[in-house]
Amino acid sequence: MIEYRPFHNSDPPAIFAVWKDSGLGRGAVQLASTDPLETMVFAQPYFDRDGLIVACDESRVIGFVHAGFGVVADESRLDRERGVICVVMVHPDYRRRGIGRELIRRAEEYLSSSGATSIQAGAAAPCDPFYFGLYGGSAMAGFLESDPDAAPFFQALGYQPTARHLVYQCDLNDHHVPVSVRLMEIRRKMELRAVAQPDPLTWWWSTRYGRLESLRFLLGPKAGGLAAAGVTVVALDHYLSKWQSQSIGLTDLAVPKAEQRQGFGQALILGVMRRLRDELFTQVECHAPDGNEAAKGLLESCGFKQVDAGSVFQRPSD
């Protein structure tokens, strides 16, 4: 008989084994030990053992689901009204027995009893409390299409897709830098500046980006003044064995409204990519919301190609 219970401190090796045997797609890291899970999941200050529910066949852990919460607008605390199912896995030997469905039911029960008035499946900002740097790549993007079982599973449970995120990558070994008069003029007047942390530094940022190596690049006038664009680079070291590439992610791209459509975003990304190639990185990943034609056009103009997509699903209101 399959039994269900909350997380125990002795569970990480068993959860690691389920992850390793589940045949996850390109967007999930190939774990070599429990250390990444300890850092990015179990060590989070808001980790709640009751939100990580495991399924056991006698003493063997054969599946698990992990639920959590989003964050309030100023990123100072959890928003317990917004629940999210971050991960659900069942060992291949135990699939199609209703175990995944029961795990989701129990996760929903945990979230509702903790105050959630909405529940989504698939972590994506601002509901991305766990597994950053371990699933999704440069950002959490819901459940990836490279894991083809996810969408049919959640839709069979009544969940409906509400958002889609496109995953782009660029091979720096085969990257051809575009040339234009506008880019040349921007390079003449502007420079890249690197800062260790964002301003302001929020609690939520520290729990996710703060656990990985990251750097924020700003594009600003050489003569001084406010930045015209900024982007954060985050090391994707855990993906080395999976992708066989020294990869880095670009996230939190921001161009003030007054500076948009002037080429600053493109100049910033190309400048950062040149810097990364000099530092011997070989691959860059960045995400864009599906439907944001400006973001898609910007990435494609910089040489990025779409390699995957992820979807967020919403549970219907009761």
Describe the structure.
This protein has 318 residues and is an alpha+beta fold. The chain has two domains: 164 residues, Aminopeptidase (3-Layer(aba) Sandwich), CATH 3.40.630; 141 residues, 3-Layer(aba) Sandwich (Aminopeptidase), CATH 3.40.630. Helices cover 26% and strands 31% of the residues. It has nine helices and 13 strands. Strands 1, 2, 3, 4, 5, 6, 7, 8, 9, 10, 11, 12 and 13 form a 13-stranded mixed sheet that branches. The chain starts with a strand and ends with a strand. 42% of the residues are buried.
Question: How would you summarize the topology of this molecule?
Answer:
Layout: E1 2-6, H1 12-21, H2 35-42, E2 52-57, E3 60-71, E4 78-90, H3 99-113, E5 118-121, E6 143-144, H4 150-156, E7 160-171, H5 181-189, E8 190-195, H6 203-208, E9 214-221, E10 229-235, H7 240-243, E11 247-254, H8 264-278, E12 283-289, H9 293-301, E13 305-314
Parallel strand pairs: 4-5, 11-12
Antiparallel strand pairs: 1-2, 2-3, 3-4, 5-13, 6-13, 7-12, 7-13, 8-9, 9-10, 10-11
Give a nutshell description of this structure:
It is built from nine helices and 13 strands. With 318 residues, it is an alpha+beta fold.
CATH class category label of the largest domain:
Alpha Beta
Total strand segments:
13
Arithmetic mean of pLDDT: 95
Tell me which CATH architecture of the largest domain applies here. 3-Layer(aba) Sandwich
Given the C-alpha coordinates, what overall shape results? elongated
Q: Tally the structural domains.
A: 2
Q: Could you name the CATH homologous superfamily of the largest domain?
A: Gcn5-related N-acetyltransferase (GNAT)
Mind telling me the C-alpha Rg? 20 Å
SS strand fraction: 25-35%
Distance between the termini: 31 Å
Fraction in helix: 25-40%
CATH-derived topology of the largest domain: Aminopeptidase
Q: How many DSSP H or I helices?
A: 9
